[in-house]
Description:
- By secondary structure, the protein is an all-alpha fold.
- It contains 4 helices and no strands.
Amino acid sequence: MTFIFLKEHLRQRHYNWSGEPNHSIQNKEIDRKTFDPFNGFQVLFIINYFGKSIGKLTVTDGLKVEELISTQLPVNAKSELSVFNWLRGIYLFYGN
């Protein structure tokens, strides 16, 4: 059984939850769609997608990813794909 990081796990409370999840979330694949770090649906999607890609996800892991997104996301990471690649680079560099 795969762990899913949920809205209730998020620490930050600045997220926007209006509207529908974007098509990437519905298709369960990242793409070049614009990433909005204030959109709760997209943040949850990236956290869970990243966890799935590295083969593990706990609440602690998800909170680390959330913290990275909210405090260190480069301004040039504008798409879901660029955010994912940035997270992958951070993960590989720090070794978790």
